[in-house]
Amino acid sequence: MTTKAKALDRLIDAIAGEDVPMNSQTVAGRLDTLADTLAGDDVSFTAQDIAGRIDELAGMIEDGTIVVGGGFSFKPFNDGHTHFLVEAYGPNDEINMQCGKSGDGELSIDWGDGTITAMTSSTSAARHKYTDFAGLHNITVISDGSAKLAVRQLAQYDSMKNYRYVAVEFSSDVIIYSNCLASEYLLADCIFDDSIESIPDSAFKSCYDLANCNLPASCGSIATSAFQSCYKHVLSDKDLTVLSKVATIGDSAFYGAAALAHAIDLSGVNTIGQSAFYSCALLESVVIGEHVTSIGNNAFASIPALREVTVKATTPPTITDYTFNNDSTLGAIYVPAASVDAYKAASGWSTHAGKIQAIPA
Questions:
Q1: What percent of the chain has pLDDT over 70?
Q2: Strand partners, 357
Q3: Which residues is 276 bridged to in the sheet?
Q4: Whose CA is closest to 246, among 267, 263, 225?
């Protein structure tokens, strides 16, 4: 990366990243430093490149996409199209999206720089080089309504890649597959519309910076490792309501999601996979509904903050001795009054017999 590219990259990171809050004086200082850098001998960027990048940043600050003093804030388009906000680090950086067309209609990708690529194959990748200037680009899916973009893998397992996904907005014009954004470490925001019915395997696994990702209202299942190691992922009140209606939570679905929530209601759940909420450090209480039949090994293990679990099923669901592998800090397991003895005698549950008691009236 050239000196100028690094300077431009530092500028956007300072405004959109961790160096917050910033006042006007701080921003002015950053721009001054940038100006000094650009005055040097490194001429890899043309004046047009630099002007374009600064103009783009100014526009995003003005329209609220980037909030000075408040960190990065993605402003949803809410226009029925899927959008990918991508940052390229330098001229000629190539975006490589593993995706294809599903359906017989017309489908294209607008790369945000005047270039549009028609999607004609179900398996081909979509590639594009930005030659104007490095910076943030809005990539938009354009569908006639009868074709969808099949999103298989957006993030590339390549430490040398010169771009990153900053935010994604999924609409009804896409189908998302397993691993679609796995290991996209710097992804901060993802927005689903309500047409998405499930979160696939490892969709956001190891997206370490993913803080905001809503659960679509129609979501019925969250698959294996969907949000594993999403350390900053926080569920809003609306998301918690959606979670209370989800029927299937896969193995390691929220493994290591340390900031997830203080309390969760899983009233609609049928099965909870092994390690589903392992090491969700903030969890203090869990409610599990009457239809649950199995809770996997280590599903609620390594959660020192967990104080109480309520299970509404009259028949003890299948668990292991290690489903709640933090018994020393767990204060109580509440179950239906008529089922207390059955729980105390059941395999796995008997390990916690001294903490099993009737749900308070």
A1: 74
A2: 334
A3: none
A4: 267
User: Which pLDDT band holds residue 1 (cuts at 50, 70, 90)?
Assistant: very low
Task: Give the pLDDT band (50/70/90) at residue 157.
Answer: very low
b (16+ CB within 10 A) / e for 90-114: bbebebbbbbbbbbeeebbbbbbbe
Angle at 135 between CA 129 and CA 138, to 5 degrees: 75
Q: Which of 89-93, 97-101, 126-130, 342-346 shows the lowest mean pLDDT across its residues? A: 89-93
Q: Are 250 and 276 in contact (CB under 8 A)?
A: yes
Q: Which residues contact 117 (CB under 8 A, 6 or more apart)?
A: 108, 109, 111, 126, 128
The average pLDDT across 251-269 equals 97
Q: Which long-range contacts (CB under 8 A, 24 or more apart) does 4-9 make?
A: 4/37, 4/38, 4/42, 4/44, 4/45, 4/50, 5/44, 5/45, 5/89, 5/90, 5/134, 7/33, 7/34, 7/37, 7/38, 8/34, 8/45, 8/50, 8/53, 8/134, 8/135, 9/89, 9/134
pLDDT of the residue at 261: 96
Bridge partners of residue 107, in order along the sequence? 143
Q: Is the dihedral of CA 19, 62, 131, 181 positive or negative?
A: positive
CATH 3.40.50.2000, domain 197-361, yes or no: no
| Residue 60 reports pLDDT greater than 50 | yes
Contact assessment for residue 73 and residue 67, using Cβ atoms and an 8 Å cutoff: yes
What is the C-alpha separation between 250 and 263, in angstroms, rounded?
19
Two structure tokens written together for 361: 């009236």
The CATH number for 74-176, chosen from 2.30.30, 3.30.450, 2.60.120, 3.30.70, is 2.60.120
Q: Is 55 a residue whose pLDDT tops 80?
A: no
Structural domain boundaries in the chain: 3-72, 74-176, 197-361
Please state, in angstroms and rounded to a whole number, the distance separating the CA atoms of residues 358 and 329.
Answer: 19
